[in-house]
Write a structure and sequence with these properties.
The protein has 4 domains: about 240 residues, Collagenase (Catalytic Domain); about 110 residues, Immunoglobulins (Immunoglobulin-like), CATH 2.60.40.10; about 90 residues, no CATH class; about 70 residues, Immunoglobulin-like. The protein is built from 4 helices and 30 strands. The strands form 9 sheets. The protein has a 5-stranded mixed β-sheet, with no helix packed on it. Strands 17-14-21-22 form a 4-stranded antiparallel β-sheet, with no helix packed on it. It has a 4-stranded antiparallel β-sheet with strand order 16-15-18-23, with no helix packed on it.
Length: about 550
C-alpha cells in the first residue's frame, strides 16, 4: 500500500524479505553462528519455508504481489483500514490458505503487528509491516533493516509470544526459553542476566533487539509453532498457493452470489438467485451451464450464452427456485464452459446460507418533490412497533426499499412539514407499497396536506385478523416464560408446530409440541411477539407479551 512512490517498494525488496523468512525459519541464516554456545543445544530449525504465491485463491496465475495506491497517509494499529478495499486498504486473500502480509506506512513509529491464530477475525488475519523495515534493501532503515521485523511478527502469527511474556519475568509458554525481566533493545552482550537466569536469550527473534543481533528460535518454539499449524493453520498444509498454474482455454467460475442476500431476511416465496459469472480462461467464453439447488434438493439448470473476454464478468439472473422452512443453503455451480470439461473446478462453486420467514415481499417506492427535506414517513405494525422510517430525504429522488412483512396488518404514515404534500404543486411525488409478486398495490398516496395514513394487511384481511385475535390461544398472557397453547378445536394429544416471531418478523423460536403442553420461552427478550401455530394445514395466530 503506498500513498507516494517512495512507499511503493520494489519486487526485489519483497523477494529479499521472503529470503530472510525462509532462512530464519530453517536456521540457514548466515548469522546463526553468532548464537552463544550456551544456547546451541536448544536452537532449532523450524522447517518452514516461504514463497510468493504463484496462484490466486480462484486459481489464476500471480506473482503474489498486489500493489495499491491508498487514500490514507498512514495506517494505525487500532484501526482496520489496512484490511479493507473500501477504506483504502486491501482485502485479504483466503486466510486459511495464505499468509497475508501488508506493507505500508505505519503511524507512531510502530515497526509492525500481527494477529495470533486463535479467536481473531479472519478478515484481519495476517501481518502488517512498516515499509521502512521490510526486507534488506531499498527503503529498509537501520537498525531494523535485515528483515527481522517480519520474522518476529510471523512468529506471533504462528502463536509465539514475547520472551518476557509481556510482564516482569512473565511466561511465553515455551519451556526452553530463559525467563527474562523485560524486552531487550539494541544489542546486548551475553550473559545479560535477569530473573535469576543464566542470561537472557536476547538473540531470539521474539525479543526486541536490533536486527543484526537476532539469529535464532528454539526447539520449544518450534513445537509451539507446529502445534499452532496443526490446530489453527492446517489449511496451509494443503494450500496450492505455491504451485504454478496455467490458464486453461475454457474456464468459467462463479465469482459471487448477489441474491439472495444473507444479511436480509427473505420471505419464503420463490427465491430469484442472481450471480456474477467470470471467464477465467484465456479465450472468449460463449456458453456455460449453471446448476443450482437449495438444501441439497434436485438441481435446476440454466444455459447461459454470451461473449465474455478473458477476465470479464456478467451478472446472471437465474429462474426462481422454491424454498420452505427458515434457514437454507443455496449451492450454485458452473459447468461445461464452451461445451468442454472444466479442468479447473476450484472456482466453479459458491454457497450461501440465507433465512426465510412466512410472509410476503413488498416494495416501498417513494418519489420526493422539489422539497424532499420536508417529507418523512413511518411503517408501523399492528403493535405500534416501527418497522422502518426515514426523515432524511433528498429532493426529486426515487427511493425503493424491499421488505419481507410477516402476516398481519400495518400502517404507513407520511408527513410534509410545510403542509403541501408531495404532489402536485412542486413536483409529481408519490408513495406506493405493492407486493413484489403479483404487483398488487396496497398503498398509493400522492396529494395530501400535512399528513396521510394508509392501512393494509399481508396474508389475511384485517377482518380475519380481528376475528382470529378475539380467541386467546396462549396462557398465561402476559407471561414470565412458561406458556401453553390450548386450541379447543384440536385434540389435546395432537402434535402442533409453533413459531414465535419478533417485531421485525424474524423467527426467534420454534417448537414441535402437543396441544395444551407447557414450554419455556424465558430466554427471549422481554417484549411483544406474534405466535403462529400450524396444524392440519390451518394457522392460528395470537399475540403474546413476555415480562420476566
Amino acid at each position: 500500500m503506498y500513498k507516494n512512490n517512495s512507499e511503493n517498494i520494489s519486487d526485489n525488496q519483497i523477494i529479499s524479505q521472503l529470503d530472510v523468512l525462509s532462512k530464519d525459519f530453517t536456521r540457514n541464516n548466515t548469522d546463526r553462528f553468532n548464537t552463544p554456545s550456551d544456547f546451541h543445544p536448544i536452537v532449532s530449525n523450524l522447517q518452514i519455508e516461504f514463497c510468493l504465491a504463484k496462484q490466486t485463491p480462484d486459481g489464476l496465475p500471480t506473482n503474489g504481489i498486489i500493489r495499491k495506491e491508498t487514500i490514507n497517509n498512514n495506517f494505525l494499529l487500532d484501526e482496520n483500514k489496512i484490511f479493507h478495499d473500501s477504506l483504502g486498504g486491501s482485502t485479504a486473500w483466503n486466510t486459511e490458505k495464505y499468509l497475508n502480509i501488508w506493507v505500508c506506512e505505519i503511524e507512531d513509529g510502530i515497526l509492525g503487528w500481527s494477529q495470533y491464530p486463535a479467536g481473531g477475525n479472519i478478515n484481519t488475519d495476517g501481518v502488517v509491516i512498516n515499509y521502512e523495515h521490510f526486507g534488506t534493501i531499498g527503503t529498509a532503515l537501520s537498525p531494523y533493516d535485515l528483515g527481522r521485523t517480519a520474522t518476529h511478527e510471523v512468529g506471533h502469527w504462528f502463536n509465539l509470544y514475547h520472551l518476557w511474556g509481556d510482564s516482569n519475568c512473565g511466561d511465553d509458554f515455551v519451556s526452553d526459553t530463559p525467563e527474562q525481566e523485560d524486552a531487550n533493545f539494541g544489542c546486548k552482550i551475553h550473559p545479560n542476566i535477569s530473573c535469576n537466569n543464566n542470561g537472557d536469550m536476547f538473540m531470539n527473534y521474539m525479543d526486541y533487539t536490533n536486527d543484526n543481533c537476532m539469529n535464532s528460535f528454539t526447539h520449544g518454539q518450534k513445537n509451539r509453532v507446529w502445534s499452532a499449524i496443526s490446530n489453527y493453520r492446517n489449511g496451509l498444509l494443503n494450500s496450492k498457493g505455491c504451485e504454478l498454474v496455467t490458464i486453461p482455454n475454457s474456464d468459467a467460475g462463479i465469482l459471487d452470489i448477489l441474491q439472495p442476500n444473507n444479511q436480509i431476511q427473505e420471505c419464503s416465496t420463490p427465491i430469484n438467485p442472481s450471480i456474477v459469472l467470470k471467464n477465467y480462461g484465456d479465450t472468449s467464453l460463449n456458453s456455460v451451464i449453471i446448476k443450482y439447488n437449495i438444501d441439497g434438493s434436485n438441481y435446476y439448470y440454466y444455459s447461459w450464452n454470451g461473449n465474455l473476454k478473458s477476465g470479464e464478468t456478467d451478472t446472471i439472473y437465474l429462474p426462481a427456485i422454491k424454498s420452505t422452512g427458515t434457514t437454507h443453503l443455496l449451492n450454485i455451480y458452473s459447468e461445461f464452459p464452451n461445451g468442454s470439461i472444466d479442468v479447473n473446478t476450484t472456482n466453479d462453486m459458491k454457497s450461501l446460507i440465507f433465512n426465510t420467514i412466512d410472509g410476503e415481499n413488498v416494495n416501498l417506492s417513494i418519489l420526493t418533490d422539489n422539497y424532499g427535506y420536508e417529507t418523512s414517513w413511518k411503517l408501523i405494525d399492528d403493535q405500534n412497533n416501527i418497522i422502518d422510517e426515514n426523515s432524511s430525504l433528498n429532493n426529486n429522488t426515487l427511493y425503493n426499499t424491499k421488505y419481507c412483512l410477516d402476516y398481519g396488518c400495518y400502517k404507513f404514515i407520511i408527513t410534509d412539514s410545510n403542509g403541501d404534500g408531495i404532489c402536485c404543486d412542486y413536483g409529481n411525488g408519490y408513495a406506493e407499497i405493492e407486493k413484489v409478486l403479483g404487483l398488487n398495490k396496497l398503498v398509493s398516496i400522492k396529494n395530501f396536506l400535512f399528513s396521510d395514513t394508509a392501512n393494509f394487511c399481508i396474508g389475511i384481511t384485517s377482518l380475519e385478523l380481528e376475528n382470529i385475535l378475539k380467541n386467546q390461544y396462549i396462557y398465561p398472557n402476559p407471561t414470565t416464560g412458561n406458556i401453553a397453547i390450548n386450541i379447543n378445536e384440536i385434540p389435546q394429544n395432537k402434535t402442533i408446530f409453533a413459531g414465535i416471531y419478533n417485531i421485525y418478523g424474524q423467527l426467534v423460536y420454534n417448537i414441535e409440541t402437543i396441544n395444551n403442553t407447557q414450554f419455556d420461552i424465558s430466554n427471549l427478550n422481554n417484549g411483544l411477539y406474534m405466535i403462529i401455530v400450524t396444524t392440519n394445514k390451518k394457522q392460528y395466530i395470537d399475540k403474546i407479551k413476555l415480562e420476566n
